């Protein structure tokens, strides 16, 4: 009887160990499945953003120093140099891609949220996300700074800025929805001859163009520029990594998907002969400037 009792106790203990091991294995298996599902979702997300349009060709890329990891605006100066701004510092940086270094820094303000950069012959302009404009006269030497408020606010989230030489004005593109109106997104003008802001948009963007898919339908401009040869307007949609060509009425003519090489596209600029350059804010990688050709 004593030995039978011992055998029963051992059997119960063994069953307990087996149950515990099976439970542990089941929990680990469930955790592993959950992790695999997360990876699968991430891979699908990466793949959806990672396929570039066949017309997009990357010709060159320059990684930027840590100071410019959060590059938010870029302007082509010459074959070696770009003017840049980044999110947090009120400074225009002159970056030399041949030397791989910052050549010059032009301070115009303190800390802020600086999103767009435009350059005319002698002056530079920077916009904050709240619509405040900075005019930096004679920006390369003996610079003087003036500040202008517009009717745009942080609610609009202004990110695009372009000097429209034909009309002597600045174009400002908003990233967020129009407050109280989701039918369109406006591109607004600031007249440089009168230093006045036009509260009526000069372009009304069709925010949900056909053929953009179920997700990321709405255009969220992070930059705007005009092609110097064709005079067509181009928008950079940063969140969706898209380059969008629009007509004079704001309708989309063509959409190009940039692919996952463009981690967070924020800046857009053309050279005088129509070469296209896009700057990316660094997330897991350094910020960069990419030379792009549209085939």
Structure summarized in a few sentences:
With 295 residues, the chain is an alpha+beta fold. Helix content is 17%, strand content 43%.
Description:
The protein has 295 residues and is an alpha+beta fold. It is 17% helix and 43% strand. It is globular. It has one helix spanning 2-50; strands spanning 56-63, 71-76, 81-86, 91-96, 101-107, 114-119, 124-128, 133-137, 144-148, 158-164, 169-174, 184-191, 196-206, 221-226, 233-237, 242-246, 252-257, 265-270, 276-280, 288-294. A hairpin with a 4-residue loop joins strand 12 and strand 13. The strands form 5 sheets. Strands 1-20-19-18 form a 4-stranded antiparallel β-sheet, with no helix packed on it. The model is unreliable at 1-13, 15-20, 22-34 and 36-48 (pLDDT under 50). The chain is built from 1 helix and 20 strands.
């Amino acid at each position: 009887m004593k030995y039978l009792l011992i055998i029963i106790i051992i059997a119960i203990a063994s069953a307990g160990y087996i149950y515990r091991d099976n439970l542990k294995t089941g929990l680990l298996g469930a955790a592993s499945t959950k992790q695999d599902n997360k990876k699968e979702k991430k891979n699908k997300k990466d793949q959806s953003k990672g396929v570039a349009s066949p017309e997009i060709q990357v010709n060159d890329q320059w990684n930027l120093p840590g100071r410019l990891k959060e590059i938010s605006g870029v302007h082509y100066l010459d074959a070696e140099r770009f003017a840049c701004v980044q999110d947090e510092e009120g400074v225009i940086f002159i970056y030399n891609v041949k030397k791989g270094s910052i050549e010059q820094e032009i301070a115009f303000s303190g800390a802020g949220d600086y999103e767009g950069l435009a350059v005319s012959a002698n002056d530079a302009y920077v916009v904050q996300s709240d619509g405040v404009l900075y005019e930096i006269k004679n920006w390369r030497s003996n610079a003087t700074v003036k500040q202008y408020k517009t009717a745009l606010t942080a609610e609009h989230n202004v990110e695009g800025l372009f000097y429209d030489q034909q009309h002597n004005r600045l174009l400002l593109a908003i990233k967020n929805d129009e407050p109280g109106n989701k039918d369109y997104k406006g591109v607004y003008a600031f007249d440089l001859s009168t230093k006045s802001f036009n509260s009526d948009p000069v372009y009304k963007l069709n925010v949900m163009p056909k053929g953009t898919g179920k997700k990321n339908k709405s255009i969220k401009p992070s930059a705007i520029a005009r092609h110097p040869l064709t005079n067509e307007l181009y928008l950079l949609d940063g969140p969706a990594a898209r380059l969008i060509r629009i007509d004079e009425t704001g309708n989309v003519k063509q959409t190009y998907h940039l692919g996952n090489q463009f981690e967070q596209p924020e800046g857009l600029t053309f050279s005088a002969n129509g070469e296209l350059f896009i700057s990316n804010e660094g997330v897991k990688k350094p910020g960069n400037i990419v030379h792009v050709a549209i085939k």
